[in-house]
Amino acid sequence: MWTHEDCVGAAGHSVDAARWLAMFDRAMARIAGRFKRVEPRATARALVLALLSGVERKNCWRMAEQAGYARPGPMQRLLRSARWDADAVRDDIRSYVLEHLGADDSVLIVDETGFLKKGTASAGVQRQYTGTAGRIENTQVGVFLAYASSKGRALIDRRLYLPDASWCQDAERRARAGVPEQAEFATKPTLAGQMITAALDAGIGASWVTGDEAYGQDPGLRTMLESREVGYVLAVACSTRVRINRGRTAARADAVADRLPASAWHRQSAGAGAKGPRYYDWAWIEIGAGGHRHLLIRRNPSSGELAFYLCWSPGRVPLSELVRVAGIRWCIEECFQAAKGQVGLDHYQVRHWTSWHRHVTLVMLALAFLAALAADATPARVAELNRPARSTDPIDLSVPEIRHLFGALLIPSSTSLYRLLHWSNWRRRHQATARRSHYRLRLAGPSTG
Prior knowledge:
The chain is globular and about 70 Å long. It folds into 4 domains: about 5-20 and about 375-445, no CATH class; about 35-85; about 85-210 and about 330-375, no CATH class; about 230-320, no CATH class. The strands form 2 sheets. Strands 1, 2, 3, 4, 5, 6, 9, 10, 11 and 12 form a 10-stranded mixed beta sheet that branches. It has helices spanning about 5-10, 15-30, 40-50, 60-65, 75-80, 85-100, 165-170, 170-175, 190-200, 215, 220-225, 255-260, 320-330, 330-340, 355-375, 400-410, 415-445; strands at about 105-115, 125-130, 135-150, 150-160, 210, 230-235, 240-245, 250, 265-275, 275-285, 295-300, 305-310. By secondary structure, it is of the alpha+beta class. It comes from Kitasatospora saccharophila.
Protein backbone atom coordinates (compact mmCIF):
# COMPACT_ATOMS: atom_id res chain seq x y z
CA MET A 1 0.00 0.00 0.00
CA TRP A 2 1.14 3.54 -0.67
CA THR A 3 2.90 5.49 2.08
CA HIS A 4 1.84 8.85 3.46
CA GLU A 5 4.79 10.39 1.60
CA ASP A 6 3.48 8.96 -1.67
CA CYS A 7 0.07 10.51 -1.11
CA VAL A 8 1.62 13.85 -0.19
CA GLY A 9 3.72 13.67 -3.37
CA ALA A 10 0.49 13.40 -5.36
CA ALA A 11 -0.76 16.77 -4.15
CA GLY A 12 -2.33 18.77 -6.95
CA HIS A 13 -3.34 15.66 -8.86
CA SER A 14 -7.00 14.77 -9.25
CA VAL A 15 -6.30 11.41 -7.60
CA ASP A 16 -6.75 11.26 -3.85
CA ALA A 17 -5.72 7.73 -2.90
CA ALA A 18 -7.15 7.84 0.60
CA ARG A 19 -10.43 9.26 -0.66
CA TRP A 20 -10.73 6.57 -3.33
CA LEU A 21 -10.17 3.78 -0.85
CA ALA A 22 -12.69 5.34 1.55
CA MET A 23 -15.23 5.55 -1.27
CA PHE A 24 -14.66 1.87 -2.00
CA ASP A 25 -15.24 1.00 1.64
CA ARG A 26 -18.52 2.93 1.59
CA ALA A 27 -19.63 1.22 -1.61
CA MET A 28 -19.01 -2.22 -0.09
CA ALA A 29 -20.67 -1.19 3.18
CA ARG A 30 -23.81 -0.41 1.18
CA ILE A 31 -24.22 -4.10 0.22
CA ALA A 32 -22.72 -5.65 3.37
CA GLY A 33 -26.14 -6.32 4.91
CA ARG A 34 -27.08 -8.55 1.97
CA PHE A 35 -24.67 -11.23 3.26
CA LYS A 36 -25.74 -12.96 6.46
CA ARG A 37 -22.31 -14.45 7.20
CA VAL A 38 -18.93 -12.77 7.38
CA GLU A 39 -17.19 -15.23 5.03
CA PRO A 40 -19.21 -14.53 1.88
CA ARG A 41 -19.17 -10.82 2.75
CA ALA A 42 -15.37 -10.84 2.83
CA THR A 43 -15.20 -12.93 -0.34
CA ALA A 44 -17.51 -10.49 -2.16
CA ARG A 45 -15.19 -7.65 -1.22
CA ALA A 46 -12.17 -9.61 -2.45
CA LEU A 47 -13.94 -10.48 -5.70
CA VAL A 48 -14.89 -6.86 -6.44
CA LEU A 49 -11.32 -5.78 -5.67
CA ALA A 50 -10.08 -8.43 -8.10
CA LEU A 51 -12.50 -7.17 -10.75
CA LEU A 52 -10.96 -3.72 -10.29
CA SER A 53 -7.42 -5.06 -10.45
CA GLY A 54 -5.17 -5.41 -13.46
CA VAL A 55 -5.48 -9.19 -13.64
CA GLU A 56 -5.94 -10.08 -17.30
CA ARG A 57 -8.68 -12.72 -17.12
CA LYS A 58 -11.22 -12.12 -14.37
CA ASN A 59 -12.46 -15.66 -13.78
CA CYS A 60 -12.59 -17.28 -10.35
CA TRP A 61 -9.15 -18.89 -10.68
CA ARG A 62 -7.35 -15.69 -11.59
CA MET A 63 -9.30 -13.53 -9.15
CA ALA A 64 -8.72 -15.94 -6.28
CA GLU A 65 -5.00 -15.84 -7.02
CA GLN A 66 -5.12 -12.05 -7.13
CA ALA A 67 -6.94 -11.99 -3.78
CA GLY A 68 -4.33 -14.22 -2.15
CA TYR A 69 -6.52 -17.29 -1.77
CA ALA A 70 -4.97 -20.76 -1.98
CA ARG A 71 -7.72 -22.01 -4.32
CA PRO A 72 -10.80 -20.64 -6.11
CA GLY A 73 -13.32 -22.44 -3.91
CA PRO A 74 -14.48 -19.40 -1.87
CA MET A 75 -15.24 -17.35 -4.97
CA GLN A 76 -16.94 -20.24 -6.74
CA ARG A 77 -19.16 -20.80 -3.68
CA LEU A 78 -19.96 -17.08 -3.58
CA LEU A 79 -21.27 -17.23 -7.13
CA ARG A 80 -23.06 -20.58 -6.85
CA SER A 81 -24.22 -21.65 -3.41
CA ALA A 82 -23.62 -18.94 -0.77
CA ARG A 83 -26.80 -17.39 0.66
CA TRP A 84 -27.29 -13.88 -0.69
CA ASP A 85 -29.75 -12.13 -2.97
CA ALA A 86 -28.24 -10.73 -6.17
CA ASP A 87 -31.43 -8.80 -6.95
CA ALA A 88 -31.21 -7.00 -3.61
CA VAL A 89 -27.60 -6.05 -4.38
CA ARG A 90 -28.80 -4.88 -7.81
CA ASP A 91 -31.24 -2.57 -6.03
CA ASP A 92 -28.39 -1.20 -3.92
CA ILE A 93 -26.35 -0.53 -7.07
CA ARG A 94 -29.27 1.35 -8.61
CA SER A 95 -29.56 3.65 -5.60
CA TYR A 96 -25.77 4.07 -5.51
CA VAL A 97 -25.74 5.18 -9.15
CA LEU A 98 -28.57 7.63 -8.52
CA GLU A 99 -26.70 9.07 -5.54
CA HIS A 100 -23.47 9.67 -7.46
CA LEU A 101 -24.65 10.26 -11.04
CA GLY A 102 -28.18 11.57 -10.57
CA ALA A 103 -29.06 14.68 -12.59
CA ASP A 104 -32.11 16.30 -14.16
CA ASP A 105 -30.91 15.45 -17.68
CA SER A 106 -30.81 11.69 -17.07
CA VAL A 107 -31.85 9.10 -19.67
CA LEU A 108 -32.52 5.37 -19.34
CA ILE A 109 -31.05 3.24 -22.14
CA VAL A 110 -31.97 -0.35 -23.02
CA ASP A 111 -29.82 -2.69 -25.09
CA GLU A 112 -28.51 -6.22 -25.18
CA THR A 113 -25.09 -7.80 -25.43
CA GLY A 114 -23.94 -11.32 -26.20
CA PHE A 115 -21.63 -13.71 -24.38
CA LEU A 116 -20.07 -16.22 -26.76
CA LYS A 117 -20.03 -19.82 -25.50
CA LYS A 118 -18.71 -23.15 -26.80
CA GLY A 119 -21.03 -25.63 -25.08
CA THR A 120 -24.77 -26.06 -24.61
CA ALA A 121 -25.05 -26.23 -20.82
CA SER A 122 -24.87 -22.51 -19.89
CA ALA A 123 -28.26 -21.08 -18.95
CA GLY A 124 -30.00 -19.53 -21.95
CA VAL A 125 -27.31 -20.44 -24.49
CA GLN A 126 -28.27 -21.29 -28.05
CA ARG A 127 -27.36 -20.32 -31.60
CA GLN A 128 -28.84 -16.84 -31.98
CA TYR A 129 -27.96 -13.47 -33.44
CA THR A 130 -25.75 -11.25 -31.34
CA GLY A 131 -24.45 -7.82 -32.17
CA THR A 132 -21.28 -8.71 -30.26
CA ALA A 133 -20.23 -10.95 -33.15
CA GLY A 134 -22.45 -9.37 -35.81
CA ARG A 135 -23.84 -12.75 -36.80
CA ILE A 136 -25.57 -15.88 -35.46
CA GLU A 137 -23.35 -17.60 -32.89
CA ASN A 138 -23.64 -19.94 -29.94
CA THR A 139 -24.23 -17.35 -27.25
CA GLN A 140 -26.03 -16.15 -24.17
CA VAL A 141 -27.79 -12.80 -24.47
CA GLY A 142 -28.23 -10.38 -21.60
CA VAL A 143 -30.62 -7.42 -21.76
CA PHE A 144 -29.36 -4.44 -19.76
CA LEU A 145 -30.59 -1.07 -18.53
CA ALA A 146 -28.16 1.84 -18.23
CA TYR A 147 -28.51 5.20 -16.51
CA ALA A 148 -26.80 8.14 -18.22
CA SER A 149 -26.55 11.78 -17.19
CA SER A 150 -24.14 14.68 -17.53
CA LYS A 151 -22.28 13.20 -14.53
CA GLY A 152 -21.62 9.79 -16.07
CA ARG A 153 -23.18 6.49 -17.00
CA ALA A 154 -23.47 3.00 -15.49
CA LEU A 155 -25.44 -0.24 -15.83
CA ILE A 156 -28.25 -0.52 -13.26
CA ASP A 157 -30.16 -3.70 -14.17
CA ARG A 158 -29.83 -6.93 -16.13
CA ARG A 159 -31.92 -9.84 -17.38
CA LEU A 160 -30.71 -13.08 -18.95
CA TYR A 161 -32.75 -13.81 -22.07
CA LEU A 162 -34.23 -17.31 -21.99
CA PRO A 163 -35.17 -18.64 -25.46
CA ASP A 164 -38.60 -20.23 -25.61
CA ALA A 165 -38.44 -23.54 -27.45
CA SER A 166 -34.90 -24.61 -26.52
CA TRP A 167 -35.10 -23.60 -22.85
CA CYS A 168 -38.48 -22.56 -21.49
CA GLN A 169 -40.15 -25.75 -22.71
CA ASP A 170 -37.33 -28.11 -21.66
CA ALA A 171 -37.81 -28.88 -17.96
CA GLU A 172 -34.78 -31.16 -17.71
CA ARG A 173 -32.44 -28.62 -19.27
CA ARG A 174 -33.82 -25.86 -17.04
CA ALA A 175 -33.21 -27.96 -13.94
CA ARG A 176 -29.59 -28.70 -14.87
CA ALA A 177 -28.87 -25.00 -15.37
CA GLY A 178 -30.69 -23.93 -12.21
CA VAL A 179 -33.35 -21.91 -14.02
CA PRO A 180 -36.05 -21.16 -11.41
CA GLU A 181 -39.60 -22.40 -12.00
CA GLN A 182 -41.00 -18.85 -12.02
CA ALA A 183 -38.75 -17.81 -14.91
CA GLU A 184 -40.93 -17.77 -18.03
CA PHE A 185 -40.32 -16.80 -21.62
CA ALA A 186 -40.26 -13.05 -22.18
CA THR A 187 -39.24 -11.13 -25.27
CA LYS A 188 -36.32 -8.75 -25.02
CA PRO A 189 -38.59 -5.66 -25.13
CA THR A 190 -40.67 -7.23 -22.34
CA LEU A 191 -37.52 -7.70 -20.25
CA ALA A 192 -36.58 -4.08 -20.98
CA GLY A 193 -40.03 -2.93 -19.86
CA GLN A 194 -39.69 -4.87 -16.61
CA MET A 195 -36.38 -3.18 -15.83
CA ILE A 196 -37.63 0.29 -16.71
CA THR A 197 -40.74 -0.20 -14.56
CA ALA A 198 -38.62 -1.37 -11.62
CA ALA A 199 -36.29 1.62 -11.98
CA LEU A 200 -39.15 4.12 -12.12
CA ASP A 201 -40.85 2.48 -9.14
CA ALA A 202 -37.56 2.73 -7.23
CA GLY A 203 -37.42 6.49 -7.73
CA ILE A 204 -35.21 6.82 -10.79
CA GLY A 205 -36.61 10.08 -12.12
CA ALA A 206 -35.45 9.83 -15.71
CA SER A 207 -37.59 11.77 -18.19
CA TRP A 208 -36.48 9.83 -21.27
CA VAL A 209 -35.86 6.29 -22.52
CA THR A 210 -33.93 5.40 -25.65
CA GLY A 211 -32.97 2.18 -27.39
CA ASP A 212 -32.35 0.57 -30.77
CA GLU A 213 -34.75 -0.99 -33.28
CA ALA A 214 -35.27 -4.19 -31.29
CA TYR A 215 -37.05 -2.08 -28.66
CA GLY A 216 -38.45 0.75 -30.79
CA GLN A 217 -40.44 -1.69 -32.92
CA ASP A 218 -42.35 -3.01 -29.89
CA PRO A 219 -45.69 -1.21 -29.44
CA GLY A 220 -46.15 -2.65 -25.94
CA LEU A 221 -42.99 -0.99 -24.67
CA ARG A 222 -43.96 2.34 -26.21
CA THR A 223 -47.45 2.14 -24.71
CA MET A 224 -46.04 1.39 -21.27
CA LEU A 225 -43.72 4.41 -21.42
CA GLU A 226 -46.56 6.70 -22.48
CA SER A 227 -48.72 5.42 -19.62
CA ARG A 228 -45.90 6.35 -17.21
CA GLU A 229 -45.50 9.74 -18.96
CA VAL A 230 -41.87 8.98 -19.77
CA GLY A 231 -40.69 10.34 -23.11
CA TYR A 232 -38.89 8.11 -25.59
CA VAL A 233 -36.65 8.34 -28.63
CA LEU A 234 -36.57 4.79 -29.98
CA ALA A 235 -34.95 3.66 -33.23
CA VAL A 236 -37.19 1.94 -35.79
CA ALA A 237 -36.76 0.38 -39.22
CA CYS A 238 -37.03 2.38 -42.43
CA SER A 239 -40.11 0.31 -43.32
CA THR A 240 -42.05 1.55 -40.29
CA ARG A 241 -45.35 3.14 -41.32
CA VAL A 242 -46.29 6.44 -39.74
CA ARG A 243 -49.31 8.71 -40.06
CA ILE A 244 -48.59 12.24 -41.27
CA ASN A 245 -50.79 15.22 -42.19
CA ARG A 246 -52.41 15.06 -38.74
CA GLY A 247 -53.06 11.36 -39.09
CA ARG A 248 -54.79 11.52 -42.47
CA THR A 249 -52.01 9.81 -44.49
CA ALA A 250 -49.96 6.67 -43.81
CA ALA A 251 -46.51 6.23 -45.33
CA ARG A 252 -43.24 4.41 -44.83
CA ALA A 253 -40.61 6.31 -42.87
CA ASP A 254 -38.09 6.25 -45.73
CA ALA A 255 -40.73 7.52 -48.17
CA VAL A 256 -41.43 10.44 -45.84
CA ALA A 257 -37.70 11.23 -45.74
CA ASP A 258 -37.44 11.19 -49.55
CA ARG A 259 -40.12 13.88 -49.86
CA LEU A 260 -38.57 16.35 -47.40
CA PRO A 261 -37.29 19.65 -48.82
CA ALA A 262 -33.72 20.80 -48.12
CA SER A 263 -35.04 23.38 -45.65
CA ALA A 264 -36.35 20.59 -43.40
CA TRP A 265 -32.86 19.42 -42.49
CA HIS A 266 -30.86 20.94 -39.62
CA ARG A 267 -27.27 20.11 -38.80
CA GLN A 268 -26.80 19.48 -35.09
CA SER A 269 -24.37 17.56 -32.91
CA ALA A 270 -25.55 14.36 -31.26
CA GLY A 271 -22.93 14.90 -28.57
CA ALA A 272 -19.18 14.89 -28.25
CA GLY A 273 -17.32 11.85 -29.51
CA ALA A 274 -13.70 10.81 -29.13
CA LYS A 275 -12.83 12.80 -32.28
CA GLY A 276 -15.05 15.82 -31.75
CA PRO A 277 -18.73 16.73 -32.12
CA ARG A 278 -20.85 14.11 -33.89
CA TYR A 279 -22.62 16.22 -36.49
CA TYR A 280 -25.58 14.83 -38.45
CA ASP A 281 -28.40 16.32 -40.44
CA TRP A 282 -31.74 15.98 -38.64
CA ALA A 283 -35.36 16.38 -39.64
CA TRP A 284 -38.54 15.86 -37.63
CA ILE A 285 -42.13 15.44 -38.70
CA GLU A 286 -45.23 15.47 -36.53
CA ILE A 287 -47.11 12.20 -36.68
CA GLY A 288 -50.63 12.02 -35.33
CA ALA A 289 -52.17 15.01 -33.58
CA GLY A 290 -51.26 16.96 -30.47
CA GLY A 291 -47.66 17.86 -31.29
CA HIS A 292 -46.16 15.34 -28.87
CA ARG A 293 -45.41 12.58 -31.37
CA HIS A 294 -42.68 12.79 -34.02
CA LEU A 295 -40.71 10.84 -36.56
CA LEU A 296 -37.07 11.90 -36.13
CA ILE A 297 -34.73 11.26 -39.07
CA ARG A 298 -30.93 11.32 -38.92
CA ARG A 299 -28.82 11.65 -42.06
CA ASN A 300 -25.07 11.09 -42.24
CA PRO A 301 -23.59 14.16 -44.00
CA SER A 302 -20.90 12.04 -45.70
CA SER A 303 -22.68 8.85 -46.75
CA GLY A 304 -26.29 10.00 -46.75
CA GLU A 305 -27.26 6.97 -44.65
CA LEU A 306 -30.55 7.45 -42.82
CA ALA A 307 -31.73 6.35 -39.37
CA PHE A 308 -35.26 6.70 -38.01
CA TYR A 309 -36.70 7.20 -34.53
CA LEU A 310 -40.22 7.23 -33.13
CA CYS A 311 -40.48 9.94 -30.48
CA TRP A 312 -43.08 10.83 -27.87
CA SER A 313 -43.00 13.29 -24.99
CA PRO A 314 -45.57 14.36 -22.38
CA GLY A 315 -45.14 17.99 -23.52
CA ARG A 316 -43.67 19.87 -26.42
CA VAL A 317 -39.90 19.73 -26.75
CA PRO A 318 -37.46 21.27 -29.24
CA LEU A 319 -35.62 19.30 -31.90
CA SER A 320 -32.36 19.75 -29.99
CA GLU A 321 -33.75 17.76 -27.05
CA LEU A 322 -34.73 14.81 -29.24
CA VAL A 323 -31.29 14.92 -30.86
CA ARG A 324 -29.64 14.92 -27.44
CA VAL A 325 -31.56 11.84 -26.33
CA ALA A 326 -30.91 10.01 -29.59
CA GLY A 327 -27.17 10.67 -29.19
CA ILE A 328 -27.10 9.38 -25.61
CA ARG A 329 -28.06 5.87 -26.75
CA TRP A 330 -24.40 5.14 -27.46
CA CYS A 331 -23.59 5.50 -23.76
CA ILE A 332 -24.72 1.93 -23.14
CA GLU A 333 -22.26 0.70 -25.77
CA GLU A 334 -19.54 2.51 -23.83
CA CYS A 335 -20.78 0.79 -20.66
CA PHE A 336 -20.54 -2.62 -22.34
CA GLN A 337 -17.06 -1.82 -23.61
CA ALA A 338 -15.88 -0.72 -20.17
CA ALA A 339 -17.61 -3.61 -18.38
CA LYS A 340 -16.03 -6.19 -20.68
CA GLY A 341 -12.64 -4.54 -21.10
CA GLN A 342 -12.07 -3.27 -17.57
CA VAL A 343 -14.04 -5.36 -15.05
CA GLY A 344 -14.57 -8.73 -16.75
CA LEU A 345 -18.27 -8.76 -17.66
CA ASP A 346 -17.67 -11.56 -20.18
CA HIS A 347 -14.80 -13.31 -18.40
CA TYR A 348 -16.94 -15.66 -16.34
CA GLN A 349 -16.73 -19.44 -16.52
CA VAL A 350 -20.09 -20.28 -14.95
CA ARG A 351 -23.10 -22.09 -16.39
CA HIS A 352 -25.69 -21.80 -13.64
CA TRP A 353 -28.54 -19.26 -13.76
CA THR A 354 -27.76 -17.99 -10.25
CA SER A 355 -24.03 -17.76 -10.91
CA TRP A 356 -24.56 -15.69 -14.06
CA HIS A 357 -26.74 -13.15 -12.26
CA ARG A 358 -24.35 -12.93 -9.32
CA HIS A 359 -21.25 -12.43 -11.47
CA VAL A 360 -22.94 -9.79 -13.62
CA THR A 361 -24.30 -7.98 -10.55
CA LEU A 362 -20.88 -7.69 -8.92
CA VAL A 363 -19.41 -6.51 -12.24
CA MET A 364 -22.12 -3.82 -12.33
CA LEU A 365 -21.07 -2.76 -8.82
CA ALA A 366 -17.42 -2.48 -9.89
CA LEU A 367 -18.39 -0.44 -12.96
CA ALA A 368 -20.70 1.83 -10.93
CA PHE A 369 -17.86 2.45 -8.46
CA LEU A 370 -15.52 3.48 -11.29
CA ALA A 371 -18.21 5.82 -12.67
CA ALA A 372 -18.61 7.36 -9.21
CA LEU A 373 -14.84 7.92 -8.98
CA ALA A 374 -14.85 9.53 -12.42
CA ALA A 375 -17.65 11.89 -11.40
CA ASP A 376 -15.84 12.69 -8.16
CA ALA A 377 -12.59 13.48 -10.01
CA THR A 378 -14.07 16.03 -12.46
CA PRO A 379 -12.71 19.59 -12.57
CA ALA A 380 -15.44 20.65 -10.15
CA ARG A 381 -13.91 18.28 -7.60
CA VAL A 382 -10.38 19.76 -8.03
CA ALA A 383 -11.42 23.40 -7.83
CA GLU A 384 -8.90 23.76 -5.03
CA LEU A 385 -6.32 24.36 -7.74
CA ASN A 386 -7.84 27.88 -7.94
CA ARG A 387 -6.99 28.51 -11.56
CA PRO A 388 -8.83 28.28 -14.89
CA ALA A 389 -8.30 25.27 -17.12
CA ARG A 390 -5.36 25.54 -19.50
CA SER A 391 -4.97 24.07 -22.96
CA THR A 392 -2.09 21.95 -21.67
CA ASP A 393 -4.18 20.38 -18.91
CA PRO A 394 -4.84 16.64 -19.27
CA ILE A 395 -8.30 15.35 -20.13
CA ASP A 396 -10.52 14.23 -17.29
CA LEU A 397 -9.83 10.84 -15.76
CA SER A 398 -11.55 8.15 -17.80
CA VAL A 399 -12.96 4.89 -16.43
CA PRO A 400 -10.07 2.82 -17.93
CA GLU A 401 -7.49 5.20 -16.44
CA ILE A 402 -9.19 5.14 -13.04
CA ARG A 403 -9.35 1.33 -13.13
CA HIS A 404 -5.64 1.25 -13.93
CA LEU A 405 -4.76 3.64 -11.11
CA PHE A 406 -7.06 2.03 -8.56
CA GLY A 407 -5.77 -1.43 -9.44
CA ALA A 408 -2.24 -0.24 -8.73
CA LEU A 409 -3.35 1.03 -5.32
CA LEU A 410 -4.47 -2.45 -4.26
CA ILE A 411 -1.16 -4.28 -4.19
CA PRO A 412 2.38 -3.43 -3.06
CA SER A 413 4.41 -2.04 -5.93
CA SER A 414 8.01 -1.08 -6.52
CA THR A 415 6.70 1.84 -8.58
CA SER A 416 6.16 4.97 -6.52
CA LEU A 417 2.82 6.70 -6.61
CA TYR A 418 4.61 9.78 -7.94
CA ARG A 419 5.84 7.85 -11.00
CA LEU A 420 2.46 6.17 -11.49
CA LEU A 421 0.71 9.53 -11.51
CA HIS A 422 3.42 11.00 -13.73
CA TRP A 423 2.58 8.41 -16.40
CA SER A 424 -1.13 9.01 -15.90
CA ASN A 425 -0.63 12.72 -16.55
CA TRP A 426 1.61 12.01 -19.54
CA ARG A 427 -0.93 9.71 -21.19
CA ARG A 428 -3.82 12.08 -20.62
CA ARG A 429 -1.91 15.15 -21.84
CA HIS A 430 -1.14 13.36 -25.09
CA GLN A 431 -4.75 12.23 -25.35
CA ALA A 432 -5.82 15.85 -24.87
CA THR A 433 -3.46 16.97 -27.66
CA ALA A 434 -4.89 14.34 -30.01
CA ARG A 435 -8.45 15.28 -29.14
CA ARG A 436 -7.78 18.98 -29.78
CA SER A 437 -6.40 18.09 -33.21
CA HIS A 438 -9.49 16.01 -34.00
CA TYR A 439 -11.75 18.84 -32.82
CA ARG A 440 -9.95 21.39 -35.01
CA LEU A 441 -10.40 19.16 -38.06
CA ARG A 442 -14.05 18.48 -37.27
CA LEU A 443 -14.92 22.09 -36.54
CA ALA A 444 -13.13 23.33 -39.67
CA GLY A 445 -15.94 21.82 -41.76
CA PRO A 446 -19.45 23.23 -42.17
CA SER A 447 -21.49 23.14 -38.96
CA THR A 448 -24.84 24.35 -40.22
CA GLY A 449 -27.09 23.22 -42.95
